[in-house]
Write a structure and sequence with these properties.
The protein is an alpha+beta fold. It is 28% helix and 25% strand. The strands form 9 sheets. Strands 11, 12, 13, 14, 16, 18, 19 and 24 form an 8-stranded mixed sheet that branches. Strands 4-5-3-9 form a 4-stranded antiparallel sheet. A hairpin with a 5-residue loop joins strand 18 and strand 19. Helix 2 crosses helix 12. The longest helix is centred in the first third of the chain and has 25 residues. It starts with a helix and ends with a helix.
Length: 642
């Protein structure tokens, strides 16, 4: 007989209690008067992680999202206006027409309010466009309303509140209720997908030596030019670039040759919080590298109606750096486009849902870049359905959403599960993967590899490189949440795993070949502007949004949801994308880093960063799970233009 000991017996007893709670919730849901909302409990809220039942008097809050009306008609409309082969292609509707035809009605809201109030919950608000009904109350009232038991669970070293099973709703309301968001505490959060440096605004600089263009400097010696560095796999490798500036990226990706600037297009960017120095930093960065500053009215921060919150949960300073990267990358790629920055109140699902809804309801931008996300397994079905409703409305109105595909490769090392990130894996958004880009001395395109990095550190003797394994790479793979969309058929190879394939396209994301950005930061000797190299699919997404602005200019207006056009071009026009394969002349670069992050006083640490080593993901000819159909070329902007 196994000897559990006192702690083991207690944990086992608690697990049985929570398992009983789950079964009790399922029994309630199976009642013929109620309908189960599958996937509405977080995947991590398992009996094995149970601590104890939640106190009945504990306060909770949640949002009940409502279904759009005439969903089949909405699906058909989105397909028609997004498909280049359809007679209705680009015949988009207005927000007013969307609300009149598809938004939940006041009657729907009243019915949901009656149910929630009847359970004792207090209705605290109704979302714009009747998207949701917000409620507050106690655990006991939430359990009564949603037919589920609430429990406390161990997660990430904390004790958190969550439903101990799937939620359910009255059968008579099942056609009106889309899902429930926010019932767990603390709330689910998303993270910025930037890689390769410390979080700003704490001061950071990339160490020297570094190359002004790919391959300029060979790493034979350390910074003192006396201490030798060893070869890597039989050859001396180049020092990493100092960070590409916009003119280099525009030259490599065919923007300069196209003559396009994105004039007439408006790109929205969503992140959490708002960097206080963003406009002055972006203007200084642009003029310092030969571009024009934002003209009057070309850039605006759109702040939430209420103040920011959840600062301890979300780390605003990290989001300042994300905003800086996104704004400077979009402006660098499409210097003539307008840029609207929409600031979320915090990094929670509910706050980002409000931010995305505002972008769509405002209808001022036709392109939206989003450099954030999380593992799919961390999202509940209610949050996913709420996000997707916004993405569908956007597509109907001619707004294309672009999301970073993630920076953890196949996610196994970071999450323990083979999975894709969300929202990047949603079928109604464009997932932007990552490459390693080599730009030559004349701003010319030399080659691209898939972004995936194994790291090697310099040995104590300084005579060899010691492997450290995989550290980061472009997210991708096959979603277990969504079926393969029709638009991917014939491009994603037959015989691939089932599910929505990620990513769709890719651009430079490797921190080793990343972009230089400029930001006001706090250094040991004061607060001032400086520049650093950064990467991640957080870079790839705004670069792609900028390229979509160029295509919008060339095509004469809104293009809407990009994926049907992307895959149509991949099938019919081989020149629209550069196919990223293992055939390139780079294996790795040497990267020096200041030990203290700002200067050489603490010494310099040397490492080798490889290319095309992305966990289990592999580049290959045609579509692949690192780079999608490849990186857009000049033809992408104008293909199909009348």
């Amino acid at each position: 007989m196994r000897n559990y000991g006192r702690r083991g017996l207690l944990a086992t007893a608690l697990a049985f209690v929570l398992a009983g709670m789950v079964l009790a919730g399922q029994a309630l849901a199976q009642n013929r008067d109620r309908v189960t909302l599958r996937g509405s409990s977080p995947a991590w809220a398992k009996p094995s992680a149970a601590v104890r039942p939640a106190p009945a008097s504990r306060h909770v809050s949640a949002r009940v999202y409502l279904r759009p009306r005439h969903k089949a008609d909405l699906d058909a409309l989105v397909r028609a206006v997004s498909n280049p082969t359809s007679g209705s292609y680009r015949h988009f509707i207005t927000p007013a027409r969307y609300r009149a035809r598809f938004a939940p009605t006041a009657s729907d809201v009243r019915a949901v309010r009656r149910w929630l109030s009847g359970a004792g919950l207090r209705v605290s608000g109704v979302g714009a466009g009747n998207r949701y009904v917000a409620v507050r109350g106690t655990v006991a009232q939430a359990e009564r309303a949603f037919g589920v038991r609430m429990g406390l669970f161990r997660r990430g070293g904390r004790t958190v509140l969550a439903p101990a099973g799937n939620l359910s709703v009255p059968a008579g309301l099942s056609e009106k209720v889309l899902g429930v968001v926010g019932l767990q505490s603390p709330p689910h959060t998303v993270k910025p997908l930037q890689s390769g440096r410390a979080q700003p605004p704490a001061g950071f600089r990339n160490a020297r030596p570094c190359s002004l263009y790919y391959g300029q400097l060979t790493a034979r010696y350390q910074a003192d030019y006396k201490s030798p560095l060893p070869k890597f796999e039989g050859s001396y490798r180049p020092y990493a670039v100092c960070g590409y500036v916009p003119s280099q990226l525009r030259g490599a990706y065919g923007v300069t040759a196209s003559g396009l600037t994105g004039a007439g297009a408006t790109v929205a960017i969503t992140d959490a919080y708002a960097a206080p120095t963003i406009l002055q930093d972006a203007n200084r960065y642009a003029t310092r590298h030969g571009d024009g500053r934002f003209s009057q009215g070309q850039f605006r921060q759109v702040l939430p109606g209420q103040g920011f919150r959840n600062q301890k949960l979300c780390d605003p300073s990290g989001w300042y750096g994300e905003e800086t990267l996104d704004v400077e990358a979009v402006h660098g790629m499409a210097t003539g486009s307008k840029v609207l920055y929409y600031a979320s109140r915090s990094c929670t699902d509910t706050d980002f849902l409000d931010t995305l809804a505002r972008v769509v309801d405002d209808n001022k931008a036709s392109i939206v870049s989003n450099s954030w996300g999380d593992f799919s397994s961390n999202e509940t079905s209610g949050a996913i359905r709420a996000y997707e409703t916004i993405f569908e409305q956007a597509a109907a109105q001619g707004i294309g959403f672009f999301f970073s595909s993630g920076d953890d490769g196949d996610d196994v090392a970071a999450s323990g599960l083979l999975q894709t990130d969300y929202p990047a894996s949603d079928p109604y958004v464009t997932a932007v993967g990552g490459t390693s880009l080599a730009v030559g001395a004349g701003n010319n395109y030399r080659w691209e590899a898939g972004w995936g990095t194994d790291k090697y550190v310099l040995s104590d003797s300084g005579k060899s490189w010691v492997p450290q394994g995989f550290i980061y790479g472009a997210g991708g793979g096959f979603s277990s949440l969504f079926n393969r969309p029709d638009y991917q058929q014939g491009v994603v190879p037959a015989g691939s795993p089932a599910g929505r394939a990620v990513p769709d396209v890719a651009l430079d994301a490797d921190p080793t070949t990343g972009m230089l950005v400029g930001e006001t930061q706090k250094f040991p000797d004061g607060v001032y502007y400086d520049e650093y190299r950064i990467g991640g699919t957080s870079l790839a997404s705004p670069l792609m949004a900028g390229m979509e602005a160029l295509a919008s200019q060339a095509q004469g207006g809104r293009l809407g949801f990009a994926n049907p056009r992307i895959y149509d071009l991949a099938r019919s026009n081989s020149k629209a994308f550069r196919d990223v394969t293992p055939a390139h002349d780079g294996a790795a670069n040497v990267r020096p880093d200041y030990a203290n992050g700002v200067d050489a006083q603490g010494g310099i640490v040397y490492s080798v960063r490889t290319f095309d080593d992305d966990s289990s993901l592999k580049t290959k000819k045609g579509w692949d799970d690192v780079t999608g159909v490849g990186s857009p070329d000049r033809v992408y902007f104008t293909a199909g233009a009348g």
